[in-house]
Amino acid sequence: MTLARLLIAFTGNELPPSAARLLGERGAAGVTLFRVHNVVDPPQVRGLTAAIQAARPAGSPPLLVAADQEGGQLVGLGDATTPFAGAMALGATGDEGLARRVAGATARELRALGVNVNYAPVCDVASDPANPALGIRSFGDDAEAVGRLAAATVRGLQGEGVAATAKHFPGAGDTAVDPHHELPRVSRTGAALAGRELVPFRAALAAGARMVMTGHVALAGQDDGLPSSLSAAVVRDLLRGQLQFQGATITDALDMRALAQGSAQVANAITALRAGEDLLLGTPDERALARLAEGLTQAQQRGLIDVDDDAAATRRLGELRHWLGGFEPPPLDVVGCANHQALAAELARRSLTLVRNDDRLLPLRPAADARIAVVHSLPADLTPADTSSTVTPTLASALRRRIPGVDEILLPAMPRASDLSGLGARLAGYGLVIVGTYAAHLQPAQAALVAAVLSTGTPAVTIALRTPWDLLAYPSARTHVCSYGILPPSMEALAAALLGEAPCVGRLPVEIAGLHPRGHGLMTRV
Fold it and tell me: Last residue of some domain: 334, 368, 395?
């Protein structure tokens, strides 16, 4: 085995000698790149991935170079890549052809950067609004619709030579715990699991997904009680056996707190391999990686790694790497090119969803001397699988390019009572307030922000800038729009839609259940 079933990671914008040795001398399968650790700009990434490939033994197929380029809230390769709005925006369009085109464009950019594996699509069904780790990373709450869009994404990525990774098997949508911090448990098993959680994975596998990432979630009633990523019942019996998956598997990151950490990480890795996993997703902690490499070497020498399993995994990974070797990288100038930017604008425009317009405020028809306030918090990461904190707010500037009299009021990510106490006075004199929230249904501070705005009595438009369930936190709002993201194309499209330049044509990809707006019954998908 040497380290052929380990994906390493490292800190730095250049390939460190220690990582080069793991790839060249000890046979590690490849590298995962992380935005915070490895990414500066496209030329630097292209140079880094070239160095990674140059480190492999002569004559061997390409190493795996992977990243989380989901789009939306998780853009793993930096701001120079095209800012596609992501999965839930695609869910709001319901357009499989658009999903395939977006995935194809994403793959061309990845290939240009030297990345050949994308940790996407997310196949989790957004069935629990309280799930802190999922949100707009999911296509929606309808398993069949999620499956169709996941399959389209697989075809788009792999049609351009990037291996798709269906995640997080067997489905982590129906949880209210973040696996970065603790172990979630999925209560559904058997037929119930097959009828919802497994539906998108079946579709992704039928579309030819070459990789599956197992999640650090535990299934209720599972005899071994292990996280799925360490469970033979999930990997061998369910994924390999029932679903007949023949491609490569990979664990989610081994440093997530759903798993025991420290020296126990070696035991986790051995357990995962014995459960039938092909690849282990290592992380940039250099000491942990060295400990893991040594532990795996000792485990093999002591016969803890099954020889037949090792041979089968080596064959599957070899087939994947040879397939990846059949594609040439496009030129670097495809990254962020005009055609891709136009596609990002199309996705943003077609996803916008008008949920309520009870006061007929939209489209806005402001007088020449009207004053409009745009109020929202600074973007923040809601989970470690999030790059929102890198985004500069642009809604106010997008509006200001179209109409005069637009001011921006930015508050802390979690507004305090002191931030809100004087808000009414600051809003005096404005004829309209546009207030945006990020996951207000999970964050009381965001809900309090909207309450403070609505209490002024000034006409207001509320915007769910991320998760569409925010209306649950302020059900009295009478004019409400969902944008499914905060990246610039979404904010540009939102500004245009608010002023009537284009209609909101998206449809809610999730139900907002249990909400009774002024006696009109349940507020559901529109």
Answer: 334
Sorted by sequence, the CB contacts under 8 Å of residue 391 that are 6+ apart come out as 379, 486, 487
Same domain flag for 382 and 319:
no
* Number of structural domains found in the chain: 2
As beta bridge partners, residue 373 has: 407, 433
Alpha-carbon distance of 416 to 409, in angstroms, equals: 15
Q: In this structure, are 321 and 366 located in the same domain?
A: no
Which three-class secondary structure string do you get for 248-285?
A: EEEEEECCCCCCCCCCHHHHHHHHHHHCCCCEEECCCC
Secondary structure of residue 353 in the 3-state scheme: strand
Catalytic residue status for 252: yes
258-307 residue pLDDT tens: 998 988 899 999 999 999 999 999 999 999 999 999 999 999 999 999 99
First-to-last C-alpha distance (Å) of the chain: 53
Do 296 and 358 share a structural domain?
Answer: no
Could you read off the pLDDT of 37-71 as tens digits, one per residue? Answer: 999 999 999 999 999 999 999 999 999 999 999 99
The answer to whether residues 329 and 359 belong to one domain is no
Tell me if 356 sits within 8 A of 517, measured CB to CB: yes
Of the candidates 153, 150, 65, the residue with the CA atom closest to the CA atom of residue 110: 65
3-state secondary structure of 355: strand
- Residue 524 domain-assigned (yes or no): no
Residue 344 lies in a domain: no
Contact 181, 214 (CB under 8 A): no
Residues 297 and 398 in one domain: no
Residue holding tokens 């120079």?
80
Check which CATH number belongs to the domain holding 434 and give it. Answer: 3.40.50.1700
128 lies in the same domain as 275: yes
Q: Select which of 95, 141, 142, 180 is catalytic.
A: 180
As a whole number of angstroms, the distance between CA 315 and CA 122 comes to: 26
| Residue 342 counted as domain residue | no
Name the band, by pLDDT with cuts 50, 70 and 90, for residue 1: low
121-167 per-position pLDDT tens digit: 999 999 999 999 999 999 999 999 999 999 999 999 999 999 999 99
The one catalytic residue among 68, 95, 178, 252: 252
In a domain, 135, yes or no: yes
- CA 516, 517, 521, 526 torsion: positive or negative? negative
Q: In terms of residue numbers, what domain contains 297?
A: 6-334
Distance CA 499, CA 47 (A): 44
Burial call 453-469: b when 16+ CB within 10 Å, e when fewer: bbebebbbbbbbbbbbb
Whether residues 144 and 88 fall in one domain = yes
Report pTM: 0.95
- CATH number of the domain to which 225 belongs: 3.20.20.300
Same domain, yes or no, for 324 and 436? no
CB 10 within 8 A of CB 286: yes
CA torsion sign for 440, 380, 363, 345 is: negative
